[in-house]
């Protein structure tokens, strides 16, 4: 690898590690494949994520347990579904997401930070028997928070939620647990993220 090789830090939860799919089918690794195919020299993403993590747990891990590089060219942030699932306060989410977004900016230090919206797990078979209208409303509220914060900080925002509501509940859209996205779903996320990280397109709000 040369000095021009880029580094990437992916922060999040089960969606970032690709729960239920092979590592190379997760959205970070599918994005990696697209970027390399486009000629970019980039290392495999460093993933700091775990199934079940909330914003607070990600913060705790970053502060106390993780050794990070001084700087990354790219940092991604997808976090919040477990805050919603556990019914944690929205003001707490706003405070902690702001801290994480600013941490991502500091780690990128002039590089690119991208925020990915929270998918609506209420459309999946796992949510059968639950009040999916409430889940949808709460996911929208959480995404409203992270989108507003992203806008204030000037971060590209990738909205995967609306498309996911159309495809995430299909048999081919979920893995064995009937909750987490399939490789085919992650492929769509990867295309949007690669367009942000590729220097050709202008960064901005993606919808």
What would a concise description of this structure say?
By secondary structure, the chain is of the alpha/beta class. Helix content is about 45%, strand content about 10%.
Structural description of this entry:
The chain is built from eight helices and six strands. The termini are far apart. By secondary structure, it is of the alpha/beta class. 42% of the residues are buried. It has a six-stranded parallel beta sheet with strand order 2-1-3-4-5-6, sandwiched between helices. 45% of the residues lie in helices and 11% in strands.
* Helix/strand class: alpha/beta
Percent of residues in helices: 40-55%
Number of strands: 6
Low-confidence stretches: 201-207
Distance between the termini: 35 Å
Mean pLDDT comes to 94
Salient structural properties:
six-stranded parallel beta sheet; alpha/beta; single chain
Describe how the helices and strands are arranged.
Elements: E1 8-12, H1 14-17, H2 27-37, E2 46-49, H3 55-64, E3 74-78, H4 81-86, H5 90-108, E4 112-116, H6 132-153, E5 157-158, H7 161-167, H8 183-197, E6 205-206
Helix pairs in contact: 2-8, 3-5, 5-6
């Amino acid at each position: 690898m040369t000095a021009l090789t880029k580094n990437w830090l992916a922060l999040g939860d089960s969606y970032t590690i690709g729960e239920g799919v092979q590592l190379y089918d997760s959205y970070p690794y599918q994005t990696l494949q697209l970027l390399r195919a486009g000629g970019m020299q980039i290392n495999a993403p460093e993933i700091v994520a775990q199934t079940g993590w909330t914003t607070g747990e990600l913060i705790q891990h970053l502060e106390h347990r993780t050794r990070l590089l001084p700087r990354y060219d790219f940092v991604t942030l997808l976090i919040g579904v477990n805050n919603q699932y556990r019914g944690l306060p929205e003001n707490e989410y706003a405070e902690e997401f702001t801290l994480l977004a600013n941490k991502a900016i500091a780690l990128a230090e002039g590089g690119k930070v991208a925020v990915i919206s929270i998918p609506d797990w209420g459309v999946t078979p796992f949510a059968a028997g639950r009040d999916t209208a409430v889940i949808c409303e709460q996911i929208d509220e959480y995404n409203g928070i992270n989108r507003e914060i992203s806008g204030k900080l000037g971060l590209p925002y990738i909205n995967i939620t609306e498309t996911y509501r159309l495809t995430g509940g299909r048999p081919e859209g979920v893995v064995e647990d009937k909750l987490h996205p399939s490789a085919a779903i992650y492929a769509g996320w990867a295309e949007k993220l690669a367009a942000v990280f590729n220097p050709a397109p202008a960064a901005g709000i993606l919808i």
